[in-house]
Design goal:
The chain is an alpha/beta fold. The chain contains seven helices and 13 strands. It has a single domain, classed as Ribonuclease Z/Hydroxyacylglutathione hydrolase-like (Metallo-beta-lactamase, Chain A, 4-Layer Sandwich), CATH 3.60.15. The protein is globular, with a radius of gyration of 17 Å.
Length: about 240
């Protein structure tokens, strides 16, 4: 399963990095995004990935640096005459929050008739969502975003390879469950030491021996984490390409 980390940054572009956007690709096209931060269309195009290829978007939570790119993805499809439907799989409240965001950014955009439908499927704790490309299993975590937040496990149905992604969260043993047996675990490493609602390097180090994933890569680093000693950790960067599995 080829994975492209199009955006590896935090909410504020620390280190010049784009906001969270992880693409699962086949050939030259991304078919699934895991999170779609506000900068995601720029990030995808910087990696030569056409947003028209995206069929499914999996959201961890409803902060703008993780879902704020959806209006641009939808409108890009509209103006480029997209015809294939788009499915968004996200937390409870995703449909309402997406409509509010669309109207805030582009008034009247929710009433437009398009050549494609936007389907919204909302997470239920550890209940799988399946289509012909991926299976998604959400694990609720601890991050305040006005709706439940989730880590997600995404299985590519083409080759059976599994990607785990922490989203944003303070420590919870759900991290062990979502990562167990995964081929690749993209894990938040937001700060060197504990900070509310986020994962930190000290806590991850204490629990490191408990993880059952094949490979762990840190992402979503704040300025303090970017300048900390991370020599013991593999860290994602914009444009990182991983052949998981």
């Amino acid at each position: 399963m080829p994975v492209v980390v199009a955006g590896s940054g935090d909410a504020f572009g620390s280190g010049g990095r784009f906001q969270t956007c992880v693409a699962i690709v086949r050939g030259d096209a991304p078919h699934t995004l895991v999170d779609c931060g506000s900068t995601s269309l720029v990030a995808l195009r910087a990696q030569g990935l056409d947003p028209l290829g995206v069929r499914t978007v999996v959201l961890s939570h409803l902060h703008a640096d993780h879902f704020g790119g959806l209006p641009f993805l939808i409108l890009d499809g509209q103006f480029r005459r997209r015809t294939e439907d788009l499915t968004i799989v996200g937390p409870p409240g995703t449909r309402e929050r997406l409509d509010l965001l669309m109207e805030a950014c582009y008034p009247g955009s929710t009433a437009v008739t398009r050549r494609f439908a936007v389907h919204v499927v909302e997470h239920r704790e550890r209940a799988p969502y399946r289509d012909d490309r991926v299976t998604v299993v959400p694990h609720e975590v601890r991050h305040a975003s006005g709706a439940p937040a989730y880590a997600v496990r995404v299985r590519d149905e083409t080759d059976g390879v599994e990607l785990a992604y922490s989203g944003d969260t303070e420590w919870t043993d759900a991290m062990l469950d979502v990562a167990d047996g995964a081929d690749l675990f993209l894990c938040e490493g937001y700060a060197p030491r504990p900070v509310r609602w986020h994962l930190d390097l000290d806590t991850l180090e204490r629990h490191r021996h408990r993880f059952g994933c094949r490979r762990m890569v840190l992402t979503h680093l704040s300025p303090t984490a970017l300048t900390a000693d991370r020599s013991a950790w593999e860290t994602a960067f914009d444009g990182m390409r991983v052949e998981a599995g």
